[in-house]
Write a structure and sequence with these properties.
The structure holds two protein chains of two kinds. Chain A is an alpha+beta fold. Chain A has one helix and ten strands. The chains are: A alpha+beta, B alpha+beta.
Chain lengths: 185, 60
């Protein structure tokens, strides 16, 4: 009798497992119990970063009416570099360089130029200022470089500076702080 | 005896199903990437440069 009961219980367990498997398979089939697959996605956001590998232009000692510029590379021009991951437009403004000629003045001009890395921005008159132009005043923020590239192989632009000392300019040290601001192009 | 065996089978099967569903429900879900949908334009950044020179000999 005991052996019969044991056999019955064993058969009951096997039958229960089989029945449960059938039920669970049904649940999975109809989506009530399953391991759902998902999709992970992300969005790489734009980053605007600008640096100036060459941030100082020293035009040396000049007499009144004398001129100097960076066009020949001596002294070297400003170099701006796009360190972000989007193309940028860059504006310029500056404090006065001369006490007798406030910005904008023909005595103090600038223009965007290609760099040692090549032409890395929209080097056209409609997008960038590529011919000598009076440096704007602080309040006269002006876009002058269009769509500077960000890939490391070509992500720089030069800013040429040219000066002509006004005839009545007092002697002494002169300086002008030039602001460059980059925004996503 | 047969009724008892059938009842036992049903109870065991129900217990197995409940346990299976319970385990599945308790598994952690993927955290997802909430908050990654940032589409605003990045803020402008600026750097300063300096132009210097020295005027000499004025009025000499």
């Amino acid at each position: 009798m005991a052996a019969t009961n044991t056999r019955v219980y064993a058969l009951a367990v096997v039958a229960a497992v089989v029945l449960a498997t059938i039920v669970i398979t049904g649940l999975n089939t109809f989506g009530y119990a399953t391991n759902a697959q998902g999709t992970a996605s992300l969005l790489v956001t734009g980053s605007v970063m600008l640096s100036a590998p060459t941030s100082t232009v020293n035009l040396g000692a000049l007499a009144p009416s004398a001129t100097n510029n960076t066009l020949g590379g001596n002294p070297p021009p400003f170099v701006l570099q796009n360190d972000g991951n989007v193309k940028v437009n860059i504006t310029i403004n500056a404090t006065d360089l001369f006490s007798t000629a406030a910005n904008p003045t023909g005595n103090y001009t600038y223009n965007a130029n290609t760099s040692a890395k090549g032409t890395c921005f929209y080097n056209t008159a409609s997008e960038s200022i590529i011919t000598p132009t009076n440096v704007p005043a602080v309040a006269g923020v002006t876009k002058f470089i269009g769509m500077l590239n960000y890939t490391d192989s070509c992500d720089t632009a030069e800013v040429e500076i040219a000066v002509s000392v006004p005839s009545g300019e007092p002697t002494g040290a002169k300086s002008s702080t030039v602001g460059f601001t980059a925004s996503q192009g | 005896m047969e009724k008892k065996a059938v009842l036992l089978v049903l109870l065991l099967a129900l217990a197995i199903v409940v346990a299976y569903v319970g385990v599945i429900a308790s598994l952690p879900t993927a955290p997802g990437l909430q908050g990654a949908q940032v589409s605003s334009q990045p803020a402008p950044v600026g750097v300063n440069g300096l132009v210097t020179l020295t005027v000499v000999g004025n009025g000499a």
